[in-house]
Design goal:
The protein is rod-shaped, with a radius of gyration of 66 Å. The protein has 17 helices and 16 strands. Helix content is 53%, strand content 19%. Helix 11 runs antiparallel to helix 12. The strands form four sheets. Strands 6-5-9-8-7 form a five-stranded antiparallel beta sheet, with helices on both faces. Strands 11-13-14-16-15 form a five-stranded mixed beta sheet. A four-stranded antiparallel beta sheet has the order 2-1-4-3. It has 584 residues and is an alpha+beta fold. The protein binds adenosine-5'-diphosphate. The site of adenosine-5'-diphosphate (ADP) has 22 residues, from helix 15 and helix 17.
C-alpha cells in the first residue's frame, strides 16, 4: 500500500473521534427520546381533543338519535368541522343499537382510512338515558409530520457535523504527519552523522515551529562541536602520523596479544612487506625470504625477561632479513596510567655499518700483514748488510739496497694511503690551480715506469689536441692517477698494456681521464661497491693484498673535492677501465 495514503491517527485525534461517537450516540438517544415524548404528548392532546369533540357533538346532537336521521344543519356542521382540519378522519353518529345514523366515511372515504385513533362518546338525553354514540377517527397527521421533520433535521445536522469533524481531523492528521515526517527525516540525518541539517521553519505551524527551531539549534551546535572535535582529532592524528612516518627507522607496534597494530613505511620497507599484509598478524610469524622466523625466539626472550629489567635496558638484537642486517630494539609500551599495552620494535637497517665493520676488521688484518712483509724484508736485508756487508760484492750490495729501496717505496705508499685517507675525509677546501692534466699524467707515468717494467707492461698516453686547462689540486690528482695506474699494473698480467686517455667528456663541461688495462677484470656484483671504503675483491683471481682504500681515495678526491665524478667499466678476464671527470 502506498505509504502516502496511510494516515496514522494520533492519540489526540483518536480521543476526539471517540468523544464524537459517544456524544453522537448520546445526542441521538436524547433526540429520539424527545421525539418520542413529543409524539406521546401529541397523541395525548389529540385524544383529549377527540374526547372533547365527541362529547360536544354528543351533547349538541343527541336529538338525532330520537329521529334516527340527521338534519341538514347537523350534516353541514359536521362537514364544516371536517373541512377545517385534516386531523379528523371521520365522524359517525350511531343509535343505541349501533346502527349508523349519519357518517362522513363515504363522503371522505380516502381520509377515513388514515384514522389511527378512534374515540367515542355516548349521546345522553334530558332524562339521562344513553340514546346513541358519536365516534370520531383521528389521523394525527400533524404529529407524524413533526416527528418526521425532527428526525430528518437531526440526521442532516449530525451528518454535517460528522463530515466537518472528519475533515478537520483528517486535515490535522495530514498536517501533523507531514511535519513529523520532516522532523523524522532531520533526526535520521543527525543519526547518520550529518550534523548541521536545517529544517525549513516555514513548513511548520504552531508549536511544531518551536520544535523545528529547537531541532535546528541542536543541529547547529552538534555541527560546531563536531567541527571542533574533528579539527582537534585530525591535528592529533596528523601529528602522530607525521612523527611516525618521518622516522627513518622502522617502527612496529604490537599489542598484548602480539598482533601488529601499527607499522610505519620504513618498517614495511625493511621487512620487505606491505602495511595491509602485515597489520593484524603476529610478529612471531614473520618470515624472511629464506623462510626463517627471525623474530620468534627474540620475542620469547623479551617476554621471559621481567618488565623492570627490560624497562631499564631494552632488548637489542640483530636479525638477518633477506641478506640485510637489521638491528632491532624491543621496548615495552605503557598507557598513561602505566598499564602494560604491548611492545614496540624499532628496526634499524645496519647492513652498511655491519659491512663497514667487517671491512674495517679486514683492513686492520690486511694492513698489519702488508706492513709486516716489507718491515721483515727491510730488517733482514739491513741486518745482513750491517753484519756481513763486507763479504758481498759491490753489485750484490747494490741489489740489496735496491730491494730495500723498493720495500721503502711500498711502505711509503701504504702509509701515504692511510694518511691521505684521513686528510681527504676532512672538509678543508683544497687549493686548486688551472693546469694541463697531461703534465700530471706524464709525471705519474714516469714515476711508475719501474713498476711497469717489472712486469714488462707497456703504458701508452693518448691525449686529445687543444685540451683546456682545468683547475685541480696537483697533489690530490697525482694520487688519483697514481692509484689508478698502480691498480692497472697490479691487476694485469705480465707483458700487458695500460692505456691512459685524456679527452673532453661527452658532456663538454667536463674533462675525462681514463686508465684502461687488459687485466683480470672485476665481476659485475662488485662493481657498484668497488669505490667503497675498505672494499676489496678477494677470491682466487684477486689474490694480491691491499688496503681497500685506493679507489675510495680516488672517489673522495674527485667527487668531494673537485665536484667531478668517477666511473668504472669492467669485464672479467678482459680488463677494466677506470676513469674520472673533472669540471672544466
Ligand atoms: P687495494 O688496496 O685493495 O688495491 P683499491 O681500493 O685500490 O684497494 O681497490 C679495491 C679493489 O678493487 C681491489 O681489491 C681489487 O680487487 C679491485 N681493483 C681495483 N683496480 C682494479 C683493476 N684495474 N683491475 C681489477 N681489479 C681492480
Amino acid at each position: 500500500m502506498n505509504k502516502k495514503f496511510n494516515i496514522d491517527l494520533t492519540v489526540q485525534n483518536k480521543l476526539i473521534i471517540s468523544a464524537l461517537i459517544i456524544s453522537t450516540i448520546l445526542i441521538v438517544f436524547i433526540a429520539f427520546w424527545a421525539v418520542n415524548k413529543i409524539k406521546i404528548e401529541l397523541d395525548e392532546s389529540y385524544r383529549s381533543f377527540g374526547q372533547l369533540l365527541t362529547k360536544t357533538l354528543a351533547v349538541q346532537n343527541y336529538e338525532i338519535a330520537h329521529s334516527d336521521t340527521a338534519s341538514a344543519f347537523v350534516k353541514a356542521h359536521v362537514n364544516s368541522i371536517l373541512s377545517s382540519t385534516n386531523d379528523i378522519s371521520y365522524i359517525t353518529f350511531k343509535n343505541k343499537v349501533g346502527d349508523v345514523i349519519y357518517s362522513t366515511i363515504e363522503a371522505y372515504s380516502k381520509r377515513a382510512t388514515n384514522a389511527d385513533t378512534n374515540i367515542s362518546s355516548p349521546m345522553i338525553d334530558q332524562n339521562g338515558k344513553v340514546v346513541g354514540v358519536v365516534e370520531v377517527g383521528l389521523s394525527a397527521d400533524l404529529a407524524k409530520n413533526v416527528t418526521r421533520t425532527t428526525k430528518k433535521s437531526m440526521v442532516f445536522v449530525f451528518s454535517f457535523i460528522w463530515l466537518v469533524f472528519t475533515f478537520v481531523i483528517l486535515g490535522n492528521a495530514l498536517l501533523i504527519r507531514r511535519e513529523l515526517t520532516l522532523l523524522h527525516h532531520g533526526v535520521k540525518e543527525i543519526e547518520q552523522g550529518r550534523f548541521g541539517t536545517v529544517l525549513d521553519y516555514n513548513q511548520a505551524s504552531g508549536e511544531i515551529k518551536e520544535l523545528f527551531d529547537a531541532f535546528n539549534d541542536m543541529s547547529k551546535k552538534l555541527h560546531n562541536y563536531e567541527e571542533q572535535n574533528i579539527d582537534q582529532l585530525t591535528l592529533e592524528r596528523n601529528k602522530l602520523e607525521a612523527v611516525l612516518f618521518s622516522i627513518a627507522n622502522g617502527v612496529v607496534v604490537c599489542d598484548n596479544y602480539d598482533n601488529i597494530i601499527l607499522v610505519n613505511t620504513a618498517a614495511t620497507k625493511i621487512l620487505n612487506t606491505s602495511e595491509s599484509e602485515i597489520l593484524n598478524t603476529s610478529i612471531q610469524k614473520y618470515c624472511d625470504a629464506a623462510g626463517d622466523l627471525c623474530f620468534k625466539d627474540k620475542i620469547a626472550i623479551f617476554k621471559n625477561t621481567p618488565l623492570d629489567v627490560i624497562e631499564k635496558k631494552p632488548l637489542e638484537f640483530n636479525v638477518d632479513v633477506d641478506n640485510r642486517v637489521i638491528k632491532s630494539v624491543i621496548s615495552p609500551m605503557y598507557s598513561k596510567m602505566h598499564d602494560y599495552l604491548g611492545y614496540i620494535i624499532v628496526l634499524i637497517d645496519i647492513t652498511k655499518e655491519a659491512e663497514v665493520d667487517r671491512l674495517k676488521n679486514d683492513f686492520i688484518s690486511n694492513v698489519s700483514h702488508e706492513l709486516r712483509t716489507p718491515v721483515t724484508i727491510l730488517s733482514s736485508y739491513a741486518d745482513t748488510l750491517y753484519n756481513f756487508g763486507n763479504e758481498f760484492s759491490f753489485d750484490e750490495q747494490k741489489e740489496f739496497i735496491g730491494t730495500i729501496n723498493q720495500e721503502v717505496i711500498r711502505l711509503n705508499k701504504m702509509v701515504n694511503d692511510i694518511l691521505d685517507f684521513s686528510k681527504l675525509q676532512s672538509d678543508t677546501v683544497m687549493e686548486k690551480e688551472k693546469q694541463d692534466i697531461t703534465d700530471t699524467i706524464e709525471k705519474i707515468v714516469q714515476s711508475h715506469k719501474v713498476l711497469a717494467d717489472e712486469k714488462n707492461i707497456q703504458i701508452t698516453v693518448i691525449k686529445e689536441d687543444n685540451l683546456p686547462k682545468v683547475p685541480y689540486n696537483t697533489q690530490a690528482i697525482e694520487r688519483v692517477v697514481s692509484n689508478l695506474i698502480t691498480n692497472a699494473i697490479k691487476y694485469s698480467s705480465e707483458n700487458s698494456t695500460v692505456t691512459i686517455k685524456a679527452q673532453i667528456a661527452s658532456d663538454p663541461k667536463f674533462l675525462e681521464v681514463t686508465v684502461e688495462d687488459k687485466g683480470i677484470g672485476i665481476a659485475p656484483e662488485h662493481l657498484d661497491k668497488i669505490f667503497d671504503r675498505f672494499y676489496r675483491v678477494e677470491n682466487q683471481v684477486h689474490t694480491i693484498k691491499g688496503t681497500g682504500l685506493g679507489l675510495n681515495l680516488v672517489k673522495v678526491a674527485i667527487e668531494k673535492h673537485h665536484q667531478g665524478k668517477v666511473f668504472v667499466k669492467s669485464k672479467q678476464n678482459e680488463g677494466s677501465t677506470f676513469g674520472f671527470w673533472l669540471p672544466v
